[in-house]
Amino acid sequence: MADRVYLDWNATTPLRQEAKAAMAAAWELSGNPSSVHSEGRRARRMVEDARNAVAEAVGGRPQDVVFVSGGTEANALALTPGLRRGTGAPVERLLVSAIEHASVLAGGRFSREAIGTVKVTRAGVIDLDHLRALLADGPPALVSVMLANNETGAIQPVADVAAIVHAAGGLLQVDAIQAFGKIPFDLASAQADLVTLSAHKIGGPKGTGALVLAEAVEGLEASLRGGGQEFGRRAGTENVAGIAGFGAAVKVAMAALKADAARVRGLRDRLEHGLRQTPDVLVFSDDVKRLPNTVLFTAPGMKAETAVIGFDLGGIAVSSGSACSSGKVQPSHVLEAMGYRSEVSQGAVRLSLGWSTTETDVDLTLKAWRKLADTLVKGERRNTA
């Protein structure tokens, strides 16, 4: 709707025109990408073009890109016991930071007994000392740390994590789903062994994602068995249209990354400045490096569900920092891991911007916030009178 402002880009992004065009072209193809005839080869070419685009974007090899149904499946596939680097010892346990996405906290194919949790600081950054202690107390581990948190936007020191993990004989999986296309990132700079990505966070279609492995990583077992698609790592006929849209979105996102990040950061800062005009507004993780597009905030007396509805009625689409699949607001496990009380975490609202966000969008959002804040402040005064 033209009269509405969309500030929920961390949940999903609009489909880029380039992705839509690539998908339309794929829908015109009749061939199966595993077939050897001309029709099949045309479909295969689309898949491989997208694979090359993803590999180039993260500095990997095309043969190490595995297309899957989305970020959740990518994470589940990555979290595999027995992974190893070259002739190194296979991992026997999993360590995850306390602020990971639910698909990582679920542990993939590791048993619950083999999963440990790494603490985070008050600012929402992984506690490196706790990680060292956990790694020293047991067999080689696969460690999973997101590049940037989907709620707070806090960027994790994945290169430092990698150095600690590799020194202990372990492997590092980086969930880059929220950060990909927003900040510079590649396998080499992060020293990651596995990386997971999702198309719909960068303007591609929903239902498509990828797992990218570093060159020397071995021992990945397919979670879906059947045919030999995706180099034997994920059976099933490839979603050619989804993959084509993913590849097109990757190319556009990478080309525009620096310019978009700088522009969006300026809008985010302007938005934060306006929010802080309300007394006692708290912006989470504002003292560490964050994604340029993300603001997670609360104010005294604010309930996330009420605020999200209030924004929506004002024409602004935002989210709580803690919406589950049912849409019901739950206490944020991220904020609770950071040490905030449930009353605080239940009042957190996330505003996330994107490439088409404008100054007018920010102004309209702040106008809606001022109206909402007046109601919240009056309600808080009544409650404390």
Automatic annotation (TrEMBL):
UniProt GO MF annotations: cysteine desulfurase activity; iron-sulfur cluster binding; metal ion binding
Pfam family, one: Aminotran_5
Keyword check for Chaperone: no
Cofactor: pyridoxal 5'-phosphate
Catalytic activity: (sulfur carrier)-H + L-cysteine = (sulfur carrier)-SH + L-alanine
UniProt domain Aminotransferase class V: residue ranges: 5-363
Domain of life: Bacteria
Keywords on record: Iron, Iron-sulfur, Metal-binding, Pyridoxal phosphate, Transferase
Keyword Iron-sulfur: yes
Known role: Catalyzes the removal of elemental sulfur atoms from cysteine to produce alanine. Seems to participate in the biosynthesis of the nitrogenase metalloclusters by providing the inorganic sulfur required for the Fe-S core formation.
UniProt record similarity statement: Belongs to the class-V pyridoxal-phosphate-dependent aminotransferase family. NifS/IscS subfamily.
Protein's recorded name: Cysteine desulfurase
Native species: Bradyrhizobium macuxiense
